[in-house]
Amino acid sequence: INSLLKNKTIWRIGLIAFMFACISFTFNVSVSPLLQQNLNFSLGKASLLVAVLYFTEIFYSSSYGLLIGKIKDKRKLMIVTFLCLGIIGSLSFIIETRYVILILCIFMVFDASNATILWDVAPMSARNSNEISLSVGVLNIGLNSGILIATPLAGYLLESFGYFSVGIAIVVFMIIGLLLIKNLSINIERVN
Questions:
Q1: What is the distance between the alpha carbons of residues 75 and 182, in angstroms, rounded to a whole number?
Q2: pLDDT tens-digit readout, 35-93
Q3: What letter does residue 70 receive in the DSSP assignment?
Q4: What is the pLDDT of residues 164-179, one digit of tens each?
Q5: End-to-end Cα distance, the chain
Q6: Fewest CB within 10 angstroms: 68, 77, 100, 189, which?
């Protein structure tokens, strides 16, 4: 555990996972009411659509798993997919559009890619085989903490300040996540 405390890369990935979960679940909590408002969906219909689209991430993630294994510079890939996730997520709430379902589908593609990349990269942050399971544990801490914080925060922002504030929150999470990814150092050879 002493080596875990000294490995800053593991903790950086945990913080990136936290920011990813904050984007994902801020979007998730807020998109159902957006569908109800913009497209006149019932709560049940909006929730079912969101659930079905999140289910499709299983297939996206499988495809990304095959693709990501072939890409050497995972940090650049993380920057691109994180940036796309944040921009698409925030635009959903900042601009009024009738194309919410299309935006939701595109968001899911980048949501799945970010999750898959994080699960691929976390073990790479380990300096030795003893740290691999610890690195995945820290990744889980980041993901679960992000869900825990983002869900009520998104509800509060939405009810208190409206959709624009949700979009701004996603932008803030994206910027912090990108700053963390920018200085991330991953040794692929150590794992392969």
A1: 7
A2: 888 888 898 998 898 888 888 888 877 787 778 878 888 888 899 999 999 999 998 88
A3: T
A4: 999 999 999 999 999 9
A5: 23
A6: 189
User: Would you state the structure tokens that stand for residue 187, as one six-digit string?
Assistant: 């040794």
Indicate whether this model's pTM tops 0.85: yes
Q: What are phi and psi of 7, to 5 degrees?
A: -85, 95
Who contacts 47 (Cβ-Cβ below 8 Å, separation ≥6)?
Answer: 32
Is residue 170 within 8 A of residue 114, CB to CB? The reply is no
Cβ count near 66 (within 10 Å):
9
Q: Which position has the higher pLDDT, 160 or 58?
A: 160
Separation between Cα atoms, residue 135 and residue 83, nearest integer Å: 24
Helices (H), 40-131: 43-68, 74-94, 100-121
Cβ burial, residue 19 (10 Å; 0-12/13-18/19+): buried
**What is the C-alpha separation between 170 and 33, in angstroms, rounded?**
16
Name residue 107's amino acid.
Answer: F
CA 94 to CA 167: how far, in whole Å?
A: 6
Dihedral sign (CA 143, 144, 147, 148): negative
Length of the chain, in residues? 192
- Amino acid 34 reads L
C-alpha R_g of the chain: 17
Question: Do residues 26 and 176 lie in contact, with contact meaning Cβ atoms separated by under 8 Å?
Answer: no
